[in-house]
Amino acid sequence: FTRESPLFETQELKLTLEQIYRHPLRASATDILNKRLRDGASDEELAALVVSLRQEDRLSVIHEEDEEGEPQIICSLGLRAPTA
């Protein structure tokens, strides 16, 4: 990644961002990213890091049933007005 090229134009980064949106991050990936953020990593360095983590299958927790494509209810919340 270079400053001359837009950050989000690479297909690898687009695939990586899609994975981040669809699947939870592994705890180890979160720790690595938090450390790099605290160390002051640039946008380009963070982009290269997440792509690398995805390529090494260390970025997200992916379950086969998640790939089936059927919507699932993750949680629900019912609210009721207080009775007087």
How would you describe the overall organization of this protein?
It is a single chain. By secondary structure, the protein is mostly helical. The protein contains three helices and no strands. The longest helix is centred in the middle third of the chain and has 13 residues, at 43-55. It is elongated, with a radius of gyration of 18 Å. The chain starts with 10 loop residues before the first helix and ends in a 29-residue tail after the last helix.
What count of helical segments does DSSP give? 3
The main pleated sheet reads as: none
CA-based gyration radius: 18 Å
Which structural class fits the helix and strand makeup?
mainly alpha
Low-confidence stretches: none
Helix content: 40-55%
- Kindly state the mean pLDDT as a whole number? 82
Strand content: under 5%
